[in-house]
Design brief:
mainly alpha; about 0% strand; globular; 6 helices; about 75% helix
Length: about 170
Amino acid sequence: MISSISKISLLLSILVLSAIVSLAQDASGNRPDATKNLDLSEPMRENLAKHRIKEEEEQYQELIKRSEEAAKISEELTTSYEETKKFTDADSKKIDRLEKVVKKIRQDLGAADDDDATPEAPSSLTTTLETIKSNAANLLSELKKTTRYSVSVVAIESSNTVWKLLKFVKLKK
């Protein structure tokens, strides 16, 4: 019940955000840009637009790299824990790194810091790590399906789940 309410509220938030963005466009359908108020030549505006596009592409590629790193770290943590049934110092560092990477991904996706929609705690640490691993893989596949212009609700939910489950892992270790 709570998850369906949070999904509905997330979708409504996205719709409201879309409406605000569409209202922010000027009559010609372009995004408002501070450079239009300046008397810049056409080649200069084109160069600024190319630079902005290149920067957006680089940010998108960074997001993909972070999600690949998250999937790799979660895989390594799961394998290590299954072998030894405990966390080493290196595993603790990986957990911290995974938490930082997922937090940055959540920021880039625009996920909110809502602590009220906490997932149910899995019964064992092995189950928790498997869930983290599958959600990290799901996050990566969803981000690869999207473009730099789109936002995936599934990717946001996956990143939120990984982030919240990491809190459980940190408490149990």
